[in-house]
Amino acid sequence: MADSQSNARLRADAGAPTTGVIHVRTRLTADFTVFSNALAQRRGSAVTIGVAAYIASLPDGSPVSIAALCAHFSEGEILISRALRELEAAGYLERRRERTPAGQVRTRTFFYDVPAGRDSDDCPRSRKTVPVPDEPVDATSPVPTPAPPAPALADADPEAVAVLSSLRRVDPRLVLSATEAARLAPAVAAWLAAGVGPREITDVLTARLPEQFRARPAGVLAFRLRETPLPVPPLPPQAAPPEHPAVLPFQTCDGCERAFRAPSPGRCRDCRRHGSIGSAAA
User: Fold this and answer.
1) What is the pLDDT of residues 173-222, one digit of tens each?
2) What are the domain boundaries of the chain?
3) CATH architecture assigned to 37-116
4) 243 in Cβ contact with 200 (< 8 Å)
5) CA atoms of 244 and 191, how far apart (whole Å)
6) What is the DSSP string of 86-147?
7) Is the pTM of this model over 0.85?
8) How far apart are the C-alpha atoms of 167 and 160, rounded to whole Å?
9) Which residues, in sequence order, are CB contacts of 269 under 8 Å at separation 6+?
């Protein structure tokens, strides 16, 4: 008689979890990045963690500007810029503006595996929050002053206003009201004062615009004027090198048959001098 068979599943290992993720580990010896759990398990935006992981995987010297990150990710400038600001506020990212020996300003980005002043074993989930008692409300505290009124268009830089008004020639959607132009004019004037020409400013403000605006175009322009580093102004035209005098051709002296430089055939300087002396003696 055949032995009885059971179709029940085998008992799972005692140490294996019954729920949640089960990792299938593979030992990597190349093409991997060491990433701290404190950053990988950070609560908040997944875009921020993805941008941090991508920057951590890049070699030194790789471009990590907003434009370079937008070219890699499918997110737009606003989400990428927000992720960089969150990493900068958390201490993982640092952006410094340094001046090169040539006088140009460059933005250098530093990425830290562990923020300054924190230990690598410090995990956000293990931190204990200390409750802060509510401060009593002081009835005599000063009332916050209202925001200053919007600047008038008549007080704005005329050249900056002209640059903003000409944007709709490149993209008809970039139509600005007088109030919006007055608010954006100081930032454009700062770019003009830094030596950036109107054409370069127009290229920065109109390049790679979204197909559809979720808000007024002035918000996108204000964001680019605020977050985009100042473009390098064009170099001044170099002065033309001084013209050297024309080299006279060689001539053969009619008297001594020596070679000398002169615009036309004749006698050399010595023959002319001796001839003048002989004529004077005669």
Assistant:
1) 888 888 888 888 888 888 888 888 888 888 888 888 888 777 788 888 88
2) 37-116, 153-227
3) Orthogonal Bundle (1.10)
4) no
5) 40
6) HHHHHTSEEEEEEE-TTS-EEEEEEE-SS-TT--TT--GGG--PPPPPPPPPPTTSPPPPPP
7) no
8) 11
9) 260
